[in-house]
Hints:
The protein has about 950 residues and is mainly beta. It is about 5% helix and about 55% strand. The N and C termini lie far apart (about 70 Å).
Amino acid sequence: MSINSDKNREINMMRIIGNIVLAIALLLTGHQALAQKNYRLSGHVTDKNNGRGIEMAVIRIESPDRWTTSDDQGSFSFENLPEGQYSVHVSYLGYEPSLQTVQLSDRTRSLEISMVPSNLSLPEVVVTAKENVGIGSSSRIDQAALEHIQPTDLADVMQLVPGQITINPDLSKQSLISLRDINTAKDPDLNGSLGTAIVVDGTPVNVNGNLQSLNAESESMRQSYAAAGKGADLRRFSTDMIESVEVIRGIPSVQYGDLTTGAVLVTTKEGRTDWQLRVKSDPEIKQLAISKGFQLPGKSGGVLNVDVDYAKAMDDLRLPAQGYNRLTSQVGYNNTFFKNTHPLELHLKVSGYRTLDENKRDPDMLRDEIIREKEMGTGFKLYGNWWLQKGWLTSLSYHIAADYSKQELFQRSTVSNTGVNAMPTSLTSGIAQGTFLPSTYTSDLNIDGIPFSLFTSLKANFFKKYGRLASRLMLGTEWRLSGNQGKGTQWDMNTPPYYSNTSRPTSFRAIPGLHDLALYAEDNSELPVGKTLIQSQIGVRYNNRMPDGFLGSRQISSLEPRVNLTWQLWKNNAYQVKAFSLRFGYGLTSKSPALFYLHPGSNYQDEVGFNYYPDLLVVTTHVIDQTANPQLKPVRNQKFEVGADWNIGGVRVALTAFEEHIRDGYTFEDQYYVMDYKKWDALSGAGKKPVFQNGAVTYTENGVTKQVPYAMKSDFHSYALPSNNSNADKKGIEYVINFGQYKKLRTSLTVDGAYYHITRMDDVLPYARKITSSYLGDRFPLLSVMPGGKSNIHQRLNTNFRLITHIPEIRMIVSLNAQVIWMDKTAFYWNSNGEAVAYSLSDKNERTYGVYDQGKPLYVDPVGYYDKQMQFHPWDVQTSSAAPYATMVQSLDSNYFLNENYPVYWQLNLKVTKEIGKRVRFSFFGNNLFNNRPYVEVVRSSSYIRMNQPAYFGAELTILY
């Protein structure tokens, strides 16, 4: 019934998409262009300081969407433009963008555009994130802001986004993205970090091919580099190579897929620049970066950019093995061909990174212990646009990218146990001999991963005007492949690492690659209505995921409609309210499961049947080769948002309210079964030399061969199954208020922040719980099933008061950020089908659900239980106090449901940037200047924690030459 319903829903959705495509086709073919005169627009782009022409500046006009680049003299031209008014945008790395409005009414029009180099002597320099006014909610961080905040990786850049809080830079630990969340980059929600797309120069970063963990249950013994199933490690991205970052928090364009939470769009540097040397130092990080943009000789030589960055981090000088030492680099070439006819952009970039601190040692490591970690990778991108202007087809965009990484972990450790341990070694199901592990031994562990990905995309862009309506239609397709060709996890079965009780050595090479094929269509329109303007972005994305390989039998398809609307009621108004617009957005997004969830590996369960040390160990092993979940689905997010942007008397306000419903999040759930095994009687006395042969244990005594008696036993065993058993509901309000500059003090004030209300449920469905205590001298005979609905609610309200003082005459900017956490609340709930499942007992032994008096213990009844035949029995309340059933009733601490509400806490952060002449820039930052770290009691866990991060300082020096 459910399958047919899903098929009918998909068929109906396909019909809707077909009707939309047909309607667009009829709309396009049913209108004839009005006869218009065509004109020529030409110009010259120069440096304002020296008058020299700027080559490779990008000149773009809208309505119609046209672009070109300047030649070696700074000249450019557009042909065959219809009469009308145009906005001409000019941009080039290291210069302030230029915007001019031109009225074309003559046969030829020429523009002289003087661009101003970016520096602190300009009247206005923006060192905060810019809220994009228009379609959707997003923030843009440009070069000046990046230079001022002195980031080390992408996690540091995120502190400028509304709702984020300042975190001290730290390269010694994994850093994962956290967006519209209360968790931070150092402790993120894993479904959130996996579901946030990081797109560098149009290429999505590969997060699906990472498998570097020991097994699905324990993950790796060391997780310095591996982020299997978690997302991208932000430490890989050097901010010295970044020109700008756009953070899409709302509903993204349909050209961005395989995501749920949002997208971070990174644009790396392109264009001619001076040599730049950047040196950064703070207590834990030392960094050196050098870059240069070369204008190659000739009229169409193009530009070559070279960037190299070295960073060394150490969280604790006493523990050098926890350090991180990286080298990143990128070489990029860009050019534009056929500038006067049909410009063809070409961007070619090759990037690489590697870690340099392969061998690690700590003072507390034993002499023979070794930790060797190595990661290296390279990426290739070829992309661009080809302006065709063939009828309504304006341009084609192409993209080809590939990346390859090699991650290795070798760990030689000393394993110490309290005594001699039994070790199963069988790789197949059945009864076999095992081995004995000494109390202390040396174990060698190798984890070798080679994740790789391929990405291609092709987009066709169309433009058409129907009277006052301007329509930009985008049709596109993309294909992705993610895989891993590593050797996998390897160790000697006779000397296993700590967490190998349910694992055996395995290879990643047999795992099929994950293919994603997508088609999408999107229309971006503008329609003036009176003095107002309506902007729309309406699109749909079709995903076809093939988790079993390109020719695999299982395919998962989904449709993702997305809509963004903006109604600009007025702009540049002469009245007190200078501008006002309303926004609305709705969309569906989804994230395919990474290979870590699709192929968790085989599971091994063992029962010791006979143990006669040191002569014989007999073990029954049960192997589950297929621990993958064929029903695993992509995570889905249904997003809504409404917003308003206005300018009242020079005070600009951006306000966004949002709601997100994330379903089918990835978790690992224990799947239980009953395992039968032989249990032989203990053999007393030494020197009996038992032998295991033909399924029997025998020994010789006084020349007579005897069999050891046995009994058949059974017990509950489990393996971790990847599941869609996690939900999250997010809602909140984000705000940015820019009060502008108080000119007498040269100081501006920006207030930003967010209120977040996040509900997470990690056990949506009932789950099995094994009882580890014994009953009547044997293992517990029943498997309890507890009600689902465990959830927690976290709320936070924060505000950043950013005071920015800019003195152009001395080329200096000082920003002071007072970060205040007004509200920080946490509450836990356990409700099934909307009803509380936990209860306390009154003095009369009566149950009280949902009312929890402090000091009284709490209880949760199972919904049922399984017996040893795996027959399910519903729970009978009448037996809850009788043996053995009473043991299955779960006890909770009386403070389990206590609402934690922390007091207000704050910190003060300072950043200073000073230019010395035109060639030297010095920057300084200090986080939590007063080291305000109050102790707060966590009543639920009877502990204390410190709020805020410790005081932290750093500085950097940049030299241009």
